[in-house]
TrEMBL record:
Similarity section: Belongs to the damage-control phosphatase family. Sugar phosphate phosphatase III subfamily.
Cofactor field: Mn(2+)
Region entry Disordered, spans: 204-292
Name of the molecule in the record: ARMT1-like domain-containing protein
Species the sequence originates in: Streptomyces lancefieldiae
Record field: catalytic activity: beta-D-fructose 1-phosphate + H2O = D-fructose + phosphate; beta-D-fructose 6-phosphate = dihydroxyacetone + D-glyceraldehyde 3-phosphate
Key words, A-Z: Hydrolase, Manganese, Metal-binding
Domain Damage-control phosphatase ARMT1-like metal-binding: 25-207, 296-462
C-alpha cells in the first residue's frame, strides 16, 4: 500500500557538497556556460556577460533581474525577491536551476534588443542531435513497426517516447560511461521500469468505441503484459503534403527492454490512484473520459520535455494515438524560450516535424499525418509562460489548471516535469504518486527517465530491490524509468 504523506517532505536544496544537486549547480552549470560560449562567436560584450554569470552562479548570490526585463514582474511573482541576496546553493534547487537558465539567456542577449535576439544558445547541439546517424537509424526502424503485433507497435511507441527522455544534452555533460543512446543495445542494458502504470494509461486512451467499463474488450491495452492490440493504422494521412517532403531512408525508435528484477508487471507496480484519491479529487472537475463526452473531444495534453531525439518519438506517439482513434485532439506544450539545454520550443517542433517528413518511409507518413493535424487544428502547440517557471505545478495559474482539467489525460514527459509535478522534495520513495498529484486537475501521467533524486510511487519491494542492486546512482543515472498514472 503506498504511503500517504502526513506532511510535505523537505525541499531538495543544492547546498550539500558531493550531492547530485550540488554537482549540477557547481559543475554542470559552468560546463554549460563553456559549451554555449564555444558554440557561437559571441562578441566581447556577450563573452563578458557569460564570464560574469559563471562567477556569479558559482561564487555569488542571486541578483534581481534587470529593471527593464520584460518578465521582471513575473519572476517577482515566482519568488525572486525572497531569494535575492542568497547563495544559489541555499535556495530550492528547482528554483536555482531554473533561474540559472533565465540568466543564461540574458548573458547571450536572447531577449534583445540586438543581434543575438531570439538566437537559441542550445540550437547547435539540438540540430547536431537531430541530424545524428542514430536518429536516422531510429526513424528507419519505423518501417518495420507495422510488421509487429499491434500491442507491440503501440508499446514500442510509448517506450520510444519514454526512453527518448534519456537523450538529454544537458544530462550528457556529466554522464560518462553509461552510454548516450536511447534504444536497446545503446548504453547500459540495466535499464528498468521502476513503475509501469501503462494499463491505466491505455484505459484512459482506449480507441474510440472501446468498452472502458473496466473490462477491456478491444485488446486496446498494449501494456507490458501480453495483450492483443488494435491494428496500428498505417493509413497514409490526408491533408496537405508539406513542402520539402523528399524520400530518403531512416530508422525508427525502438522500445527499451524492462530490466532485470523489475518488470512491466513486476513488484512495485502500483496502479494509481492511491487511497482517497479519485479522478474527481479536490479541485478536479470531471474530465472527459475515453470516448470523450457530449461536451468535448478526447484530448491529450502532452507536456513535452527535450527536443531532438526525445521530441521525435513524442511526435510519433501523438501521431499514432490520433491515427488509432485513441484521442481526437492533442495539445503539445513546449517552452516559450530555450530552457535546460535541450527543452523543446516551437522551433524545435518544426525542426522535428520536417525531419520526420523528409525521412521518407513510415516516418514521413507519421510526419505528414501530424502536419495535417496541425493545419486542421486537431493538434495545437502551446508555449505557456508557466512552462518555464521555477515552481512546482501545484502553483500553476488558473488558465493552465482549466486546460489540464478539461483534458482526457495530461502526460508530462521527463525528469524536470516530474520534479515539478510531484514537488522537488525528499519524498520517501514509497510515497503515493496519487497523493502527491492529488492537486492536479484531471487525470495525469508521468513518462520519465530518472535523472534526479526525487522519486515517489515505488512499492517497498521495488525500493528494496533498487537499494540492494548496488547501483548507487539508480535515481540519477538515467538507467531507470517510470510510467505513473493517477486517474
Ligand atoms: O527534464 P529532463 O531533460 O529529463 O532532465 C532535466 C534534469 O532533471 O536533468 C538534470 C538532472 O540530471 C537536472 O539538471 C534537470 O532538472
Amino acid at each position: 500500500m503506498p504511503d500517504t504523506p502526513s506532511a510535505p517532505a523537505p525541499v531538495i536544496l543544492g547546498n550539500e557538497p558531493g550531492s547530485f544537486p550540488h554537482g549540477v549547480l557547481a559543475e554542470r552549470h559552468p560546463a554549460i556556460i563553456r559549451q554555449v560560449r564555444e558554440a557561437f562567436p559571441y562578441d566581447p560584450e556577450r563573452q563578458r556577460a557569460l564570464d560574469a554569470l559563471l562567477a556569479n552562479c558559482t561564487e555569488g548570490v542571486i541578483e534581481p533581474l534587470p529593471a527593464d526585463a520584460h518578465d521582471r514582474e513575473r519572476w517577482t511573482a515566482w519568488g525572486m525577491d525572497a531569494y535575492v541576496g542568497r547563495s544559489w546553493f541555499d535556495v530550492p534547487w528547482l528554483w536555482a536551476e531554473s533561474h540559472f537558465y533565465r540568466r543564461l539567456l540574458d548573458a547571450v542577449g536572447h531577449f534583445g534588443p540586438g543581434a543575438w535576439q531570439g538566437v537559441d544558445p542550445f540550437r547547435p547541439a539540438k540540430l547536431a542531435e537531430l541530424d545524428a546517424p542514430e536518429t536516422d537509424e531510429e526513424l528507419a526502424a519505423l518501417d518495420g513497426l507495422g510488421d509487429l503485433p499491434a500491442d507491440e507497435q503501440t508499446r514500442a511507441l510509448l517506450h520510444g517516447s519514454l526512453w527518448g527522455n534519456r537523450a538529454d544534452l544537458g544530462f550528457r555533460l556529466s554522464t560518462s560511461g553509461t552510454g548516450t543512446g536511447t534504444g536497446p543495445g545503446a548504453g547500459d542494458e540495466t535499464r528498468a521500469l521502476v513503475a509501469d502504470d501503462s494499463d491505466a494509461l491505455w484505459s484512459l486512451l482506449a480507441p474510440s468505441g472501446t468498452d472502458t467499463s473496466g473490462t477491456d474488450t478491444s485488446g486496446a491495452t498494449p501494456s507490458g503484459a501480453a495483450a492483443s492490440g488494435t491494428t496500428l493504422s498505417g493509413a497514409t494521412p490526408s491533408g496537405a503534403t508539406p513542402p520539402g517532403a523528399t524520400a530518403s531512408r531512416a530508422t525508427a525508435p525502438t522500445s527499451a527492454p524492462t530490466g532485470p528484477g523489475v518488470t512491466a508487471s513486476g513488484p512495485g507496480v502500483t496502479a494509481s490512484p492511491g487511497p482517497g484519491v479519485t479522478a474527481s479529487g479536490p479541485g478536479v472537475t470531471a474530465s472527459p473520459g475515453p470516448g470523450g463526452t457530449a461536451t468535448g473531444p478526447r484530448t491529450l495534453c502532452l507536456v513535452a520535455d527535450n527536443a531532438g531525439r526525445e521530441l521525435v518519438p513524442d511526435l510519433l506517439l501523438v501521431s499514432h494515438l490520433l491515427a488509432q482513434g485513441r484521442v481526437d485532439r492533442a495539445v503539445l506544450h513546449v517552452k516559450p524560450y530555450p530552457y535546460y539545454v535541450s527543452d523543446a520550443t516551437t522551433a524545435d517542433v518544426l525542426d522535428a516535424l520536417r525531419r520526420l517528413v523528409a525521412a521518407g518511409g513510415a516516418a514521413a507518413a507519421y510526419g505528414r499525418r501530424l502536419w495535417a493535424a496541425l493545419t486542421d487544428g486537431r493538434v495545437t502547440v502551446r508555449a505557456h509562460p508557466f512552462s518555464c517557471a521555477p515552481l512546482p505545478y501545484a502553483d500553476m495559474p488558473a488558465d493552465l489548471r482549466e486546460e489540464f482539467a478539461a483534458a482526457t489525460v495530461t502526460v508530462l514527459k521527463g525528469d524536470l516535469n516530474y520534479r515539478r509535478l510531484v514537488g522537488d522534495r525528499w519524498w520517501p520513495p514509497t510515497t503515493s504518486f496519487a497523493d502527491v498529484t492529488a492537486y492536479f486537475p484531471g487525470p495525469v501521467a508521468a513518462l520519465r527517465t530518472l535523472k534526479s533524486d526525487v522519486i515517489t510511487g515505488l512499492s517497498p519491494d521495488t525500493e528494496a530491490a533498487l537499494e540492494a542492486s548496488g547501483e548507487q546512482r539508480w535515481r540519477t543515472s538515467g538507467t531507470h524509468a517510470l510510467i505513473q498514472v493517477r486517474r
